[in-house]
UniProtKB/TrEMBL annotation:
Gene3D superfamilies in the record: Beta Polymerase, domain 2
Keywords linked to the UniProt accession: Transferase
Protein name: Nucleotidyltransferase domain-containing protein
Domain Polymerase nucleotidyl transferase: residue ranges: 37-88
Stored InterPro entries: NT_sf (IPR043519), Polymerase_NTP_transf_dom (IPR002934)
CDD domains assigned: NT_KNTase_like
Species, as recorded: Streptomyces roseirectus
GO molecular function per UniProt: nucleotidyltransferase activity
Matches recorded under SUPFAM superfamilies: Nucleotidyltransferase
Length: 272
């Protein structure tokens, strides 16, 4: 039986509902969120347009000592190298100061870039649907409503084929268990999210839960279902296995990139 639309991350109009809110931040994570807010404002002052949380912390699903703190910081102008250095330092300090998180990092985009036509169905969607306002003027007010369409799928995740050579290089250079764990976590999450958006228009909904994403994918590609479910588990509890990285870059990744191009096309290209 098909789930009601409201259970699939859509609002009453069939648009993707914004996930997360400050009200969902669990009590253990509120001090680090407050510190991040104050320090971002101190760093950028009047140059700051807005700042956002994303990921498990604003969704209320973060695990103490296991989840990281994810920020999107939006200066009014394009960020400088000094801004990037300051943001990296901010993440390092938050990670050391707050044992509740396992890492802190920030994306840094200028306001005009996020509102550009080129980013409407990529970072624009990310801001409007996956980010929780923390400071400043919410850019979602200037962006369209989004539906789970093939266009959205193509522009968010239709670049996997271009990424795979870089993934193989990174896998070959990952010469410690810690480096491999980080890489398995990243690639697992990326592949599961790409697999989900492959089927998103047919599934007609949105979720950010990796297990739910893998389950949705398995409805349409049962032969790859177990592989995706395992990747989803590794996205939360990664291994340091080189064999997993080889599987991702030599088997699952290439297959998924080819199928994605067949179904939705390649990011940046007009649909035929």
């Amino acid at each position: 039986m098909t789930e009601p639309i409201s259970h699939r991350g859509l609002d009453a109009q069939g648009c993707i509902a914004r996930e997360g809110s400050l009200a969902r931040v669990q009590p253990r994570f509120r001090p680090v969120v407050a510190a991040a807010r104050d320090r971002v404002l101190d760093l950028f002052g009047t140059r700051l347009h807005s700042a956002y949380l994303y990921g498990s912390v604003p969704r209320g699903t973060a695990r103490v000592g296991r989840s990281d703190l994810d920020l999107l910081i939006v200066p009014r102008a394009e960020p400088s190298e000094a801004d990037w250095d300051a943001v990296r330092t901010l993440g390092e300090h938050l990670d050391k100061e707050f044992p509740e998180i396992d890492g802190a990092g920030a994306l840094l985009y200028g306001r005009d870039r996020l509102l550009s036509d080129a980013e409407t169905y990529d970072m624009g969607f990310f801001v409007a649907c996956l980010c929780t306002p923390l400071l400043g003027d919410d850019l979602a007010e200037y962006l369209p409503r989004y539906r789970p369409t093939s266009l959205l799928a193509r522009e968010t995740n239709g670049d996997l084929a271009a990424l795979l050579p870089h993934w193989r290089t990174r896998a070959a250079e990952a010469d410690s268990p810690e480096a491999r764990v980080r890489l398995v976590r990243f690639q697992s999450r990326h592949l599961v999210r790409t697999a989900f958006t492959l089927v998103m228009p047919r599934w007609n909904g949105w979720t950010s839960d990796l297990h739910d994403m893998a389950g949705a994918f398995a409805e349409y590609y049962p032969a790859r279902g177990a592989q995706l479910r395992t990747a989803a588990a590794r996205g939360y509890d990664p291994t340091d296995s080189p064999e997993v990285l080889a599987e991702y870059t030599r088997d699952l990744g290439p297959w998924l990139a080819e199928e994605y191009a067949r179904v939705h096309g390649v990011k940046g290209e007009q649909a035929s």
